[in-house]
Amino acid sequence: MRTVIQRVSHASVTIDGQMKSFIKGGLLVLVGIEASDTIEDIEWLSAKITNLRIFNDEQGVMNLSVKETGGDVLIISQFTLFAATKKGNRPSYIRSSKPEVAVPRYEQFILQMEFDLGKKVHTGTFGADMKVELLNDGPVTIIIDSKDKE
Q: Could you give the residue ranges of the DSSP H alpha helices within 1-150?
């Protein structure tokens, strides 16, 4: 699984002109899923994201997690995170999981994030044409791949 995590002042997702989800301060998490992803990837990534210390403490130091701040999380599926651009100018998405594999993993990831966070997370709709708006706070943007645990 590959994620792009953005600390946001607010974020929303709109589908067919209707706002599906809106959060104030917290994290926008774009998630891409590949066929080899397992429950271990989901558990590791969820724990890493919920405990990532990227929010300021009283001294202005990034020392607090979204869990500690009580911030919200908006999770958006994004198969384009596995785009291969080595050959030609048209990206290949061959590494992105097919919906029959990706949808259950995406739903497991949402449930794991809710468990680790201790509250409901907000989402887009898998496979929908979504319009995502955000105000990146910082800016703070972090990429985490469960296959490349740095």
A: 39-51, 66-69, 99-117
Mean pLDDT, the chain, rounded, equals 95
Which position among 80, 85, 123, 125 bears the catalytic label? 80
What residue ranges define each of the domains in the chain, with the CATH number in brackets? 2-145 (3.50.80.10)
* Alpha helices for 5-149 (secondary structure H): 39-51, 66-69, 99-117
What whole-number distance in Å separates Cα of residue 131 and Cα of residue 43?
28
* CA angle centred on 69, ends 116 and 135, rounded to 5°: 100
Q: Is 80 marked active-site?
A: yes
Q: How far apart are CA 66 and CA 25, in angstroms?
A: 9
pLDDT value, residue 116:
98
Q: How far apart are CA 77 and CA 127, in angstroms?
A: 7
Kindly report the pTM of this predicted structure.
Answer: 0.94
What is the C-alpha separation between 19 and 17, in angstroms, rounded? 7
